[in-house]
Amino acid sequence: MKKQIAQILVFSSVIGMLYACSGNQTESSAEKTDSTATAGSSNYACPMHTSVKSDKPAACDSCGMELEKVK
Ligand SMILES: [Zn+2]
Predict the structure, then answer these.
(1) Does 24 have pLDDT greater than 80?
(2) Is the pTM of this model over 0.85?
(3) Are 27 and 1 within one domain?
C-alpha cells in the first residue's frame, strides 16, 4: 500500500516537471513569431530624380513625372 502511494507521488511529480517544461517552450516560441511583423512600407521615387521621394503616389517636383513604386 505504501509502495503504491510512493509510485503515485513520483509519477505526478514527473508529469508536473514535463508540463512545466512544455509550458516554457510554448512561451518562448510565441515571442519569436511576433518579431517579423511590419516590414518595409512601399515608397515612391522619381525614375529620373532618385532624390525625389514620397510615401504616397505623387508627381516629381523637378520634372512632373509620376513617382514610381520602390520596394
Ligand atoms: Zn523627376
Answers:
(1) no
(2) no
(3) yes
- 3-state secondary structure at position 49: coil
Ion ligand 1 contact residues with beta carbon within 5 A: 46, 48-49, 60, 62-63, 65
Listed residue (52, 51, 57) closest to 69, CA to CA:
57
Domain count, the chain: 2
For residue 44, the CA-to-ligand 1 centroid distance in Å is: 11
Both 48 and 71 in a single domain? yes
Distance 61 CA to ligand 1 centre (A): 6
Domain residues for 8? 1-31
32: CA distance to ligand 1 center in Å?
42
- 47 falls within a domain: yes
- What single-letter amino acid sits at 56? K
Q: Model confidence over 35-56: pLDDT tens digits?
A: 333 334 659 999 999 899 999 9
